[in-house]
Each structure stands twice: as structure tokens, then as C-alpha cells.
From TrEMBL:
InterPro entries reported in the protein's UniProt record: Aldolase_TIM, Carboxylase_cons_dom, PCB-like, PYR_CT
One function term, GO molecular function aspect: pyruvate carboxylase activity
Annotated signal sequence range: none
Cellular component terms per the entry's GO annotation: cytoplasm
Source species taxonomy: Bacteria, Pseudomonadati, Pseudomonadota, Gammaproteobacteria, SAR86 cluster
Pfam family membership, one: PYC_OADA
Listed name of the protein: Pyruvate carboxylase subunit B
Span of domain Pyruvate carboxyltransferase: 6-265
Superkingdom to which the source organism belongs: Bacteria
Native source organism of the sequence: SAR86 cluster bacterium SAR86A
GO terms under biological process: gluconeogenesis
């Protein structure tokens, strides 16, 4: 029996470079190869969202919407895909539905076809409105399950979640394994069951961190998956993904391969040269790290934690820090570790290790997460921690109400008139930059120097653990 071959999503332009060079690749380094990429025959290219929006404004002095326009112009035959963090959009806090709709409308207008929509806690309420707005815009609303392992995350849990996602109207489903935890056989069983229970196409996104991804992707193919995410070989493996050329070679014999391997080699060689420029952003991992299977610390997270400890002159505490993460995770009901829960748990772990005591200092975001502000927690909260959180919650002032679009429009108008920026004051995408990243957008429009991550302990926006 021949198995249907899955189509391929190329992720170099978003997740590949996000995982390997801290999302620093400039648009000018992408442009020369885009037309070639458009000829490959990918089902889609993941190009936008995740940390790229933030990084454009924060580090690259680029308007993320200008980058999207470049993609739209270059990819005539290939669908454009983005990663959307549910109610958090491409940021780190929740937004009102009016803002979510406005963001999605504009993303569609400037070229996005497929929206992969996830919530770090797998709370379906946090992805429902995005799915609705994408469908209203007649594009592909891909609902996502953020894969993790824990006593509460069993096969029944995943099937139910996937069914619920289909029921709220998702056009397709993604299994998102940001930490490379999905084992090949588990994946096979899961995909088989999902194919049996769901009618919508199923995509797999897994990372190479633990060394399982090639086998996991292959088993997904055997189980009848519809689409696999890969990254061109010169930006593959380590914290990133299975190499595009390798996966194609696993599926096809030399004679029957419909892909132009010479073209793929050309693309890979191009990015190989580009990668050299960004050497200083590379993580320290070589080969694979099987500790991830125990600690569940995802790709980008470990390298940043390492760097933070190094900056604090506490590099010797790394092992303690890594051990702390699963303990905290257990206490907070086994949340998956992905933006923003990865940052929240990472920051709290750092606190515990620096204090040499668990939960002596509690980060505000950690308190909020336990209190359900980011959505429903999958498991049970440790009662002892809950008590501490209840006590600490009393001293926190509620200062960050979610505002609607009208509120931001007025704020933006004021900002523009105060700074003689009349030209941008009516532009929806400039308004969105302002709403999503107020500080970075102001610096960007006022041509101030780029902000640096000087406060490395607190969880501020762009804390740096880019995990998605
Ligand atoms: Co990813």
C-alpha cells in the first residue's frame, strides 16, 4: 500500500532563523532568494509572526509590515503562513477582540493566507476569536495543540482538544512540538487516531533539539499526516527542525522525487553564507540534548537562560536552574512551555535559584498565570503555592486592563500629533505597531537607538526566551 506523501511547509524565514540565530535575520538578507524559494513547490512558507514582529521593531529597525509586503510581492505561487499566539497576537499579553480582528484583517490584507493559532496553555477560549476572524476573512485558520508530556497530558486529552478545535471551526490542525518531546511511536499513534477522529488536514511541527525529529516526522508520514514543517538544510537541526532536503529524500526515491534538489541546494547554499553574518547569535548546543526529554526546556529557552546566568556571573548555577523548571511546572499544573509560559516559568526558576529558596520572590506574571489570567491551567496547582500566591495577590494592583481598539486609536492620535507624525497617524499598520509594542514602536518612529535587554531578570516584553 502506498502512503500519501505529505506536503511541506518551509520555515527558514520564521522559525528556522528564530531558533538558530535569535530571530535576527534582516529582510535584506532574505530578498535575493525569495523568488527561488517560490519555485520549490512548498505548500506554504512560514514567514511572519512568532518573535519576528517583535524583533523587527526591537532589534532590526524594520517595520514588520514592510517585510510582509516584500514576501507578498515575491511569493506568487506559494501560500504565506504566520504564527499567531492566540489572544496575545504576536506579543506577550492579551488583547481585546476588537484589536484581534483589526490585526487579522490587516494581516490578510497584506498577504497572510494561513494563520497557525496557538495558546500556550491550550485553552481553547484563547484561540476561538482568532479562528473566527480568520475565517471571516476567508483564509486558513489553523488551530494548534501545543504538545507536552505530563500526567495530565495523555492521548485522550489530545484527541479531545483536537476535536474541540475542529468543532470551533478550525480549517486545519497543527501538532506543535516546540521542545522536541514527541517520540516517533507516540506520534504515529497520535496521528493515526487524529486522522480517524478528525476531518480537517493535520500538520506536524517538531523541533530537532532532542534528536527525535527526523524519526518523528517520518512516523507521522507513515501514519498519514497531511503536512510536515521543515527548514532548509543550512538552517536545520540543533534548536531548529528536520532539514527540508533530508525529509524529501526520506519520502522519495531519486527517480520519483518531484522536487528540484539542485534548486534546494542553491537555496541552502545561499542561507549558509547568510548564517555566517549572524554567528554571534548562535546558541551553544552542538549535536543533540537528550536532557530536554527529562527537563522539557524548549529550544530557544536553554540558550537564553545560559546567557542570563553568564551575565550574572552565575554560570555554575545552570544545572540547578534546569532542574528547577520541571519542579515549578509540576506546581503550576503542568503548563506547556511555550511563549509566554516559557518566559514566565523561566523567570520564576531564575528567581528561585538566585534566592536559593523556592517562591521567596514571586514574579507578577507568575502570580497572574497561577491566578488564571493567561487562561485555564491544564492540571492542579500545588496547594502550598496557591496559598503563597493568594497572599501575594493582595499586594498587586490591577493596572493592566485590556483596552479596546478605540482607546488605542485615541492614544496613537495623541502620540502622532505630539511628535509631528501626521503622515502615519491614519495608517492602520502603524497603529498596530503602536498597540502591540508601544515602547519599541515609539523608539522606531522617533528614530531612537534600539533598546537593549538591560534588565535581564524581570519579565519585560521581549524577555528573550523566544520559544514558538
Ligand atoms: Co517552532
Amino acid at each position: 500500500m502506498t502512503i500519501k506523501k505529505p506536503t511541506i511547509t518551509e520555515v527558514i524565514l520564521r522559525d528556522g532563523q528564530q531558533s538558530l540565530i535569535a530571530t535576527r535575520m534582516k529582510t535584506e538578507d532574505m530578498i535575493p532568494i525569495l523568488k527561488d524559494m517560490d519555485k520549490v513547490g512548498y505548500s506554504s512558507v512560514e514567514v511572519w509572526g512568532g518573535a519576528t514582529y517583535d524583533c523587527c521593531l526591537r532589534y532590526l529597525d524594520e517595520n514588520p509590515w514592510d517585510r510582509l509586503k516584500v514576501f507578498k510581492k515575491s511569493f506568487k505561487n506559494t501560500k504565506l503562513q504566520m504564527l499567531l499566539r492566540g489572544k496575545n497576537l504576536v506579543g506577550y499579553r492579551q488583547f481585546d477582540d476588537s484589536v484581534i480582528e483589526f490585526f487579522i484583517q490587516n494581516s490578510i490584507k497584506y498577504g497572510i493566507n494561513i494563520f497557525r493559532i496557538f495558546d500556550a496553555l491550550n485553552d481553547i477560549n484563547n484561540i476561538e476569536s482568532s479562528i473566527k476572524f480568520v475565517k471571516k476573512g476567508k483564509e486558513n485558520a489553523q488551530g494548534t495543540i501545543c504538545y507536552t508530556t505530563s500526567p495530565v497530558h495523555n492521548e485522550r486529552y489530545w484527541i479531545k482538544l483536537a476535536k474541540d478545535i475542529e468543532d470551533i471551526g478550525a480549517t486545519s490542525l497543527a501538532i506543535k512540538d516546540m521542545a522536541g518531546l514527541l517520540r516517533p511511536r507516540t506520534c504515529y499513534e497520535l496521528v493515526k487516531k487524529l486522522k480517524k477522529n478528525l476531518n480537517i488536514p493535520i500538520h506536524l511541527h517538531t523541533h530537532s533539539t532532542t534528536g527525535l525529529s527526523d524519526a518523528t516526522n517520518f512516523k507521522a508520514y507513515e501514519a498519514g499526516i497531511d503536512n510536515i514543517d521543515t527548514s532548509i538544510s543550512s538552517f536545520s537541526n540543533l534548536y531548529a527542525h528536520t532539514a527540508t532536503e533530508s525529509f524529501i529524500s526520506m519520502m522519495y526515491s531519486e527517480e520519483k522525487n518531484p522536487f528540484d534538489m539542485k534548486l534546494l541546494t542553491k537555496i541552502s547554499e545561499y542561507f549558509n553564507e547568510v548564517r555566517k553574518k549572524y554567528k554571534k547569535y548562535e546558541g551553544s548546543m552542538r549535536g543533540v540534548d537528550v536532557n530536554m526529554l527529562i527537563n522539557q526546556v524548549p529550544g530557544g529557552m536553554l540558550s537564553i537562560l545560559e546567557k542570563q546566568l553568564l551575565d550574572l556571573n552565575k554560570a555554575d548555577k545552570l544545572k540547578l536552574l534546569i532542574d528547577e523548571i520541571p519542579k515549578i511546572r509540576k506546581d503550576v499544573g503542568y503548563v506547556p512551555l511555550v511563549t509566554p509560559s516559557s518566559q514566565i516559568v523561566g523567570a520564576q526558576a531564575l528567581m528561585n535559584v538566585l534566592d536559593d529558596q523556592r517562591y521567596k520572590t514571586l514574579n507578577k506574571e507568575f502570580i497572574d498565570m497561577v491566578n488564571g489570567k493567561y487562561g485555564k491551567i491544564p492540571g492542579d496547582i500545588c496547594p502550598k503555592l496557591k496559598k503563597k500566591i493568594d497572599k501575594a495577590s493582595k499586594n498587586i494592583d490591577i493596572d493592566d486592563d485590556v483596552q479596546n481598539l478605540e482607546f488605542y486609536k485615541n492614544e496613537f492620535k495623541e502620540f502622532c500629533s505630539d511628535n509631528q507624525l501626521k503622515k502615519i497617524s491614519k495608517n492602520p499598520t502603524d497603529l498596530l505597531n503602536f498597540i502591540l509594542f508601544p515602547k519599541e514602536a515609539k523608539d522606531f518612529y522617533l528614530h531612537k537607538n534600539k533598546s537593549t535587554l538591560n534588565d535581564i531578570i524581570g519579565l519585560q516584553e521581549g524577555f528573550g526566551l523566544y520559544v514558538d
